[in-house]
Design a protein that fits this description.
Number of helices: 4
Mean pLDDT: 91
Low-confidence stretches: none
Strand content: 15-25%
Shape: globular
Distance between the termini: 30 Å
Structural class: alpha/beta
């Protein structure tokens, strides 16, 4: 099964990606930052796609191309960014 994980290179997302790999699944890691450090040793075992979740066309293209069965949505802005850029947080 192919699962798209948004926020995959963050604290929660990196744990979910590792758990999916441990279950024999094929996660696609979606990240606006694209920084794979929190994925640790599994970073070479997962397809990392850099994309902002607000880019609907790119998301649709990824879902079709990667043949995604499931989406686990964990992408979010950190509280400090939300305070600094509330319009972006709502978007």
């Amino acid at each position: 099964m192919t699962t798209l994980v948004t926020g995959a290179t963050g604290m929660l997302g990196s744990h979910v990606v590792r758990a999916l790999l441990g279950r024999g699944e094929e996660p696609v890691a979606l990240s606006a930052r694209g920084d794979p450090r929190l994925l640790g040793a599994v970073r070479d075992d997962v397809r990392i796609q850099r994309c902002d979740i607000r880019d609907a066309d790119r998301i649709a293209e990824l879902l079709a191309r990667e043949r995604v069965d499931t989406v686990i949505h964990l992408a979010a802005l950190m509280p400090a960014v939300c305070r600094e850029r509330p319009a972006e947080a709502v978007e």
